[in-house]
Design brief:
InterPro entries: 3'-5'_exonuclease_dom (IPR002562), Exo_C (IPR041605), HRDC-like_sf (IPR010997), HRDC_dom (IPR002121), HRDC_dom_sf (IPR044876), RNase_D-like (IPR051086), RNaseH-like_sf (IPR012337), RNaseH_sf (IPR036397)
Strand content: 5-15%
Shape: flat
Structural class: alpha/beta
Number of helices: 20
Helix content: 40-55%
Number of strands: 8
GO molecular function: 3'-5' exonuclease activity; nucleic acid binding; nucleotide binding
Order of helices and strands: EEHEEEHEHEHHEHHHHHHHHHHHHHHH
Oligomer: single chain
Domain HRDC: 233-313
Protein name: Ribonuclease D
Strand order of the largest sheet: 2-5-4-3-6-7
CATH superfamily of the largest domain: Ribonuclease H-like superfamily/Ribonuclease H
Distance between the termini: 49 Å
Region (Disordered): 1-27, 313-334
CATH topology of the largest domain: Nucleotidyltransferase, domain 5
Number of domains: 3
Length: 414
């Protein structure tokens, strides 16, 4: 039976084959300049796309640096590079990869730490994004490899402390497997996107990811403290802010994940209880530990600074936004905008379903909200298309959605 062009295909057959180690074994880690030059020469002399991955230590370290870089290219095999041992100086690798297409899974997670090392792709293929555009509901690397290539990858060390040295052998095995089949997966996904008529769309998306600016620091990042939604008292919010900023400074100085310095729950507990002195602070559960007893003066000073702030320096109960308010408040603030958003969402969902796409990949939800909250003066399809392009939509997205969004902008609550 013919498969509809908009539905992803996958091979059927026996159960997936467990892939417990790389076909060529785990290579030694490149940790000195001589080995780096040798690896770079091999990669430069090989052909085809380069599979790239990194391992970080997000749950353990403050920084988001790469503690291991994995590469694989046909003709060169797999290369595992320790950027820490090399002092972050990977110039031979930068030269070797110039002009090559990089294959990454969820590239936006890895590109910032690679850029810190001077590594930036000339061309990109993102297998996770490709899977989304092809209509696969589950796009984790292991899931796609299992479904499309028939292998089950070894799991278990993705959230490990990759700053540890030396790296255990089983961790290195896991890291090497992450790039073992990445190019093969790329080829299958490219063929599937071509079959569905979506390859040109995917190439536009890959280029947008490749050229995206590095993430900017968040405004008021302390407002993301877990549990802060329960606090509305400005003085208590000031205490959360002071504790968060103190913890962040300590974590940055020690290169430790902030949650390992002091968990969010402890910040919230101290801010809500408002202890009057060190003894009362130490009576709180998390602060009874040895580490917190040593730092009790640091935390108490932060609380005292917050308590001494004049009223005009206290934080606002809610964060200030540069965009529209949360959609659940639109009906009260602007019923017509709420009607436009509802119409746009309905239309975009229908388009996404027709093309087997996640609606968030069809058009960014934030762009939809901003456009519906403050439409352009001219709501003709051509003018709306221009507004969407100015908001960052890619040509394929504009072509699919501009007419529908223009029509939604004409809807009113009346």
């Amino acid at each position: 039976m013919d498969v509809p062009a908009d539905e992803p295909t996958a091979p059927t057959g026996p159960d997936p084959v467990p892939l417990t180690e790389p076909a060529d074994g785990v290579p030694p880690v490149v940790a000195d300049p001589t080995a780096l030059r040798r690896a770079a020469t091999a990669l430069a002399g090989a052909k085809g796309p380069v599979a790239v991955d990194t391992e970080r230590a997000s749950g353990y370290r403050y920084s988001q640096r790469a503690y291991l870089v994995q590469l694989r290219r046909d003709g060169a095999g797999t290369v595992l590079v320790d950027p820490i041992a090399l002092g972050g100086r990977l110039d031979p690798l930068v030269e070797a990869l110039e002009g090559a297409e990089w294959v990454l899974h969820a590239a936006s997670q890895d590109l910032p730490c690679l850029a810190e090392l001077g590594l930036r792709p000339s061309a990109l293929f993102d297998t996770e994004l490709a899977g989304r555009l092809a209509g696969f509901e589950r796009v984790a690397l292991g899931t796609l490899v299992e479904r499309l290539l028939g292998f089950r990858l070894e799991k278990g060390h993705g959230a490990a402390d990759w700053s540890r040295r030396p790296l255990p052998a089983d961790w290195l095995n896991y890291a090497a497997l992450d790039v073992e089949l990445l190019v093969e997966l790329r080829d299958v996904l490219e063929a599937e996107l071509e079959r569905q008529g979506k390859l040109a769309w995917a190439l536009e998306e890959f280029e947008a990811v490749r050229t995206a600016p590095l993430p900017r620091p968040r405004t008021d990042p302390w407002r993301r403290t877990s549990g802060i939604h329960r606090v509305r008292n400005p003085r208590q919010l000031a205490a959360v802010r002071a504790l968060w900023e103190t913890r962040d400074s300590v974590a940055r100085e020690r290169d430790i994940a902030p949650g390992r310095v002091l968990p969010d729950s402890a910040l919230m507990e101290a801010a809500s209880r408002n202890p009057s002195d060190e003894a009362e602070l130490l009576a709180l559960p998390v602060f009874r530990g040895r580490a917190q007893r040593r730092m009790v003066g640091t935390w108490m000073n932060a609380l005292r600074r917050a308590g001494a702030l004049p009223k005009d320096e206290l934080p606002e109960p809610a964060a200030q936004h540069d965009g529209p308010p949360p959609p659940n408040r639109w009906s009260d603030k602007d019923p017509d905008a709420a009607a436009r958003l509802a119409a746009a969402r309905t239309a975009l969902n229908l388009i996404a379903e027709a093309h087997t796409l996640p609606v968030e990949n069809l058009l960014l939800p934030d762009l939809v909200r901003r456009t519906c909250w403050q439409p352009p003066a001219d709501t003709s399809p051509g003018a709306v298309a221009a507004a969407l392009r100015e908001g960052g939509a890619r040509p394929w997205q504009v072509e699919l959605t501009a007419d529908a969004v223009a029509k939604a902008l004409s809807v009113s609550a009346g």
